[in-house]
Design brief:
about 475 residues, alpha/beta, Alpha-D-Glucose-1,6-Bisphosphate, Chain A, domain 3, TATA-Binding Protein, 16 helices, 21 strands, about 40% helix
Length: about 475
């Protein structure tokens, strides 16, 4: 059987379960990761292993732990499906050398994945991933050490932990949990059948706040949806918010590192709006200062906030493997992506959909505004910004032709407005003289082309997306 080339994309290696995401390949990943952490001297601090609610994720996590333990490395294994940010917090809590997480995040049910986290609890940057890939390739051609789970546990090389209590303590140091619990509002939480099930309920229980959970039983089939908190997957959340007359709806993705939100009227709040509102909350409501780090697909509203509050705004390619290092270097206040992942100073430099949701609730509490009023506030303070994204699947053999069409595309104008800049920081982005922009890039985790646009009106956004689709020929 030909070996599978294992390459880490925007956020880990992902494959189709039973096709290329198989035990042999997962064990090779564990062996390559173990060799890397031993090579750089971090293995002596131990490694954390976590997993989500996908099919066989627990079994893949045990297989990972067995290989790591066979390399003489202490393993802390999280009990039960655990959100990625909670695993990352365990790394920091235990001063571990890093972590492996079995998850494919927001991908469809037939996918699973292998994420590597650094000693900071952050996504591993490209150089580290390249070194791990090199070790994995070697491991695929040699016998891999294994120590049975029972034997590793008996030798004290594997320790199981409940990561929730220490994570809850950390969050209580970042936001006034008791004040959140005492709000007399209804909140609907949608865990999208994923690892975030029960977290908002456990954190917010015991007060006046009424929290209703939906899609709250972990289910590896993710029935009827992809576990990505974007509008096409949140129809039930929107309906329940309206039916219950709730104050807000909050959704976390399959491994709870992303947040989606809907207003009290059931309107979806785009990720760009959520990111901007969270930055506003930290800058205006909490009075904090620090850099904003944004992936290039995020809103220009953040640049405007930077001007108003006199803080730097740094732009990176898509992926927290780019955002996290910039956050650490700048001691940034907030970092985030258009995908709905946001990280915050004082916490792990990694996306946390749970903390983002709590901060959103605190923004509502401290301003006394509904989500709809907060969206109006954005327009009043920063001017109108509208956004949308197209996700276009294509046959794998067509990628080269699409890429060639995008490489040669150099329009002088789009939708009647001159193009002021074309850049290739990540994909192909066209910035117009009126501040609107269009971006075409391949997903780093799925076989699809993403087309993004932001402009002053939704009609213009739709026209730009159509032009982008013509440009790519998809």
């Amino acid at each position: 059987m030909a070996k599978t080339p294992i390459k880490f994309g925007t956020d880990g290696w992902r494959g189709i379960i039973a096709e290329d995401f198989i035990f042999d390949n997962v064990r090779a990943c564990a062996q390559g990761m173990s060799r890397y952490f031993k090579e750089v001297g971090l293995a002596r601090r131990g490694l954390v292993v976590g997993y989500d609610s996908r099919f066989a994720s627990a079994d893949f996590a045990v297989a990972t732990a067995e290989v790591v333990a066979a390399n003489g490395i202490q393993v802390t294994l999280c009990q039960g499906p655990t959100p990625t940010p909670v695993v990352c917090h365990q790394v920091c809590e235990r001063n571990a050398g890093g972590a492996a997480i079995i998850t494919a995040s927001h991908n469809p049910a037939r996918w699973n994945g292998f994420k590597v986290k650094t000693e900071h609890g952050s996504a591993a940057p490209d150089q580290i991933l390249a070194d791990i890939e090199r070790h994995i390739a070697v491991a695929q051609d040699a016998p891999i050490a294994r120590l049975s789970y029972a034997e590793a546990k008996a030798k004290g090389l594997i320790q199981e932990v409940d990561p929730f209590p220490s994570y809850a303590v950390r969050l209580a140091g970042l936001v006034d949990m008791e004040a959140l619990r005492q709000q007399k509002i209804t909140v609907v939480a949608d865990s999208m059948f994923g690892a975030g099930t029960g977290y908002f309920s456990r954190l917010l229980a015991g007060g006046a706040l009424k929290l209703e959970e939906i899609n709250s039983q972990p289910n590896p089939a993710f029935p009827g949806i992809n576990p990505e908190p974007i509008e096409p997957n949140l129809a039930r959340l929107q309906d329940v918010v309206r039916e219950r007359r709730a104050a807000v709806g909050l959704a976390t993705d399959g491994d709870a590192d992303r947040l989606g939100a809907v207003t009290e009227t059931g309107q979806f709040i785009t990720q760009l709006q959520t990111f901007t509102l969270l930055a506003y909350y930290l800058l205006e409501v909490r009075g904090e200062r620090g850099a904003i780090v944004k992936a290039l697909t995020s809103s220009r509203m953040l640049n405007r906030l930077g001007e108003i509050y006199n803080v730097p705004v740094l732009e990176t390619p898509v992926g927290f493997k780019h955002v996290a290092p910039a956050m650490l270097e700048q001691d940034a206040l907030i970092g985030g992506e258009e995908s709905g992942g946001y990280a915050f100073r004082g916490h792990v430099p990694e996306r946390d959909g749970i903390l983002a949701g709590l901060y959103f609730l605190d923004l509502m509490r401290r301003t006394g505004k509904t989500p709809s009023q907060l969206l109006s506030l954005l327009d009043e303070k920063l001017g109108p910004h509208r956004y949308n994204r197209l996700d276009l699947h294509f046959p794998a053999e067509g990628r080269g032709a699409i890429l060639k069409r995008m490489e040669i595309a150099r329009p002088k104008s789009l939708d009647g407005i001159p193009v002021s800049k074309r850049d290739t920081l990540d994909g192909f982005r066209f910035t117009l003289e009126d501040g609107a922009w269009l971006l075409l890039r391949f997903s780093g985790t799925e076989p699809l082309l993403r087309i993004y646009a932001e402009a002053k009106s939704q009609e213009k956004v739709d026209r730009l997306l159509s032009l982008g689709r013509e440009m790519a020929g998809v």
